[in-house]
Amino acid sequence: MTPRPETALDSVAIARAVKRIAHEIVERNPEAKALALIGIVRRGAYLADRIAVEIRGLSPREIAVGTLDISSYRDDGRGRPGDPRLIARNIPFSLDGKTVLLIDDVLYTGRTVRAALDALTNLGRADSIQLAVLVDRGERELPIRADYVGKNISAPPGHRVYVRLTEVDGADAVVIGNGNGK
Predict the structure, then answer these.
(1) Residue 27 has pLDDT above 60, yes or no
(2) Which residue range(s) make up the domain with 51?
(3) Which of 62, 74, 82, 151 is the most exposed place for a label (fewest CB within 10 A)?
């Protein structure tokens, strides 16, 4: 019998984590006149939108939101070939002089974030780049850490952390399951 997936965060806990991340961003960046939230496609993009809504309710400053597909920048064989500047990027503003908040759903090995940093540095010169993630599951392969974390979660060997969002999956939840998506 296959064990049932464990729900680590429900919709209420996800909403609370998003709100807390937004508050921390505003508190840690009081001097930043221009914030840019860049969500890593796919679920990071939806989380960036949610965090931006919360920040706008807390602060009158300019907040730009964009999305970044880092597939061509990956070093683990999961990327697509081709010119990375032409693949699924929607950043209709300059990064120059902005405080950029890179947003992703799960931080695990650090390879996705490394790829995103490579992509961002090709797009402009931000004043600073910070990282916000809904879930940090540890076990890094690269020396990368998040500035803002919704929840730290450990998963047993052979298991994955799945972030499910209403915009993609029809409901909000963070689930720990076996490697088959169950």
Answers:
(1) yes
(2) 11-157
(3) 82
